[in-house]
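Standup, Tuesday
Yesterday: got the pipeline producing structure tokens again.
Today: sanity-check two examples.
Blockers: none.

Example 1:
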Amino acid sequence: MSTFKALMLTKDDAGTQHIGWAQVTEADLMEGDVTVRVTHSTINYKDGLVLSGKSAVPRKFPMIAGIDFAGVVETSAHAGFKAGDAVLLNGYGLAETHFGGYAEKARVKGDWLIKLPKGIDAHHAMAIGTAGYTAMLSVLALEKHGLKPSDGPALVTGAAGGVGSVAVTLLAKLGWHVIASTGRLEEADYLTSLGAAEIIERKELSEPGRPLGKERWAAGVDSVGSHTLVNAIGMTKAHGAIACCGLAQGMDLPGNVAPFILRGVALLGIDSVMCPMPLRLEAWQRLATDLDLKKLDSMTRTIAFADVIDEAAKILKGGIRGRVVVNIG
């Protein structure tokens, strides 16, 4: 049986995690009814955590890393897919409890897969990846809360990162006045090119603040958490909402109830990993129609499979702008 390349996480008897390249066979793959030849993956913040070798994200070992992939179905026992179908997968426990996308092949449940939407190829699907798909889920949550551009500006924190870059682009195209918060002011021109109308420094939000601040925005997409999220909530207009989808600053929420009971502000949690399939399909269809692929290209770099470990280390330090596509081969 032929072998193929995978990026494998292992744990020794002392509990130390190790990361290395492995040659595996289809017989080594986990259970599933669809086998996919993986052509592309990507690097998200969560991938950086996994490849740090110190996170609690992987819950089984050995584990193939990579929370996303796109590729072509090789074999299928699932009624919804056949050999040759172009597919993508985000989340569903990849790199946590099920072998992930940093491998030349994957075997998964067909119920987890999505056929590539019309107009999006495998490269663009991974340029979007979990980060962009999460940004779209956040925008959908704000819309379903009843918010619209005429209600006021929309804040995007961590704006130069993956989630932030796509969120800025989507919100701007939908007519929002976007306020982009970033710790990298040298990226101001980049954020403006994506559609940001204002740029503010990260430090305006990242330190402990007052329970309630001046009302500055009606909506927001936050991928940072901690004090940043608390301050974003505290400066949200009455009956506005913040979609919470990340923890780059921390998992803590050192705030209070004042914005919720005095202004009716809503905190909207975004779960991209186990998101129900109907909402996934809605998000990907909206990405196919609402995301400017030229702007997506402008925020995306492509790297070789061999460079994943080095690139993943950068994302935890805020060293990656926009999106990265991994060419698996």
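Example 2:
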Amino acid sequence: MKVSPLTGVLGARVDELDLTPDLAAAEVAALRSALLEHEVVVVPGQSLTPPEQAHFSRLLGDYSPVPFVQAVPEHPEVIKVVKEATEPEAFNFGGVWHSDFSFLDAPPAFTILHALDVPEVGGDTVWASMTNAFEALPQEMARRLEGVTCVHSASASYSPAQQELHSGLSGMTIRTSESAEATQEHPLLCTHPETGKRSLFFNGTYVRGLRGIGIGDGSESGAKEELRLLRWLHEFSTHVRFTFRHRWANGDVVLWDNRSTQHVALNDYAGHRRELNRTTVAGSEPID
């Protein structure tokens, strides 16, 4: 297989590789190595059925359950990400900066997205490297963020108040729940369990609060500082200098590391259809 970096920050294209369920162990290891190094890997020209994609995903690790979103019938490990051409005003699934299901106690390690029917123009996905964002932190800010904990919750996306928003997508079944109000705390600065690199484990969608010295302590000054720091972290971590933008083509398979990236799907293809299949690989509890 041939690995070609796509930016100087993150992202690589892998050629001369067929992603089949019986991929050789050496090829799986090489692909995983490329994924850990580049954080996002694009493999073009693939044709995977839902069961084939599920089986391939398991070569990288166990299946990571998907809350709130109904899977493809008869294929419980695959969810369909689809927006019809007749739904120009509908919410775009994944259309805000996030790291997949970071509100879980053990968020997914990897996500695999397979493009089946994408518009000729629009619907790109953008990733930001939280490893590079950490490395670019001013020293004083890095010291300050040590020991800060993020409060993750699905409330902004999957609480019952959001059901009408999701119901605008006829090709997906998303069932909101009061359980989305539950919270899970993870360190803001984490160490990657495989590479040992440090990164910001942050995203503006699921991180609903911060805990640490002088913030999240219930005081008025603490609340103001918490809000200010949340805004700063979002703007800093999603700065264009940390990003890679992918223009989808039918047959693309993109794999990414949720432990060191966040991403957003752009909603600029009104009147055009977009369909992809997604699987996720189980991860572990984030560590500082």
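Quick observation on example 2: Helices lie at 25-38, 50-58, 130-135, 139-145, 155-158, 163-166, 220-237. The two ends are 34 Å apart (CA to CA).
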